[in-house]
Amino acid sequence: MGLTMGHGKDARAEELHNLRVALATFALQLDAFEMRANGALRAAGRAASTREASIRKASVAVPWADRKRDSEGGK
After folding, report:
1. What single-letter DSSP state applies at residue 1?
2. pTM higher than the cut 0.85
3. pLDDT: is 49 or 20 the higher one?
4. Could you report how far apart the first and last alpha carbons of the chain are, in Å?
5. Averaged pLDDT of the chain
6. DSSP letters for 44-74
7. Is residue 16 within 8 Å of residue 23, measured between CB atoms?
């Protein structure tokens, strides 16, 4: 009976260890995912900012009267 109890405790201890390793692995994977996601969001923000700056620069380069004529089909 003593051997069975010891074996059962060892199995539970091993399972607990496996669960801890799995949880730690998941936490690391989640951290890596969050870093990649944040990097992608920052890159998208920079791209949008650059795109908006280009649009503003283009709209300043074209006088309002010319843009109005162009939008009316050349009238």
Report:
1. -
2. no
3. 20
4. 100
5. 78
6. HHHHHHHHHHHHHHHHHHS-HHHHHHHHTT-
7. no
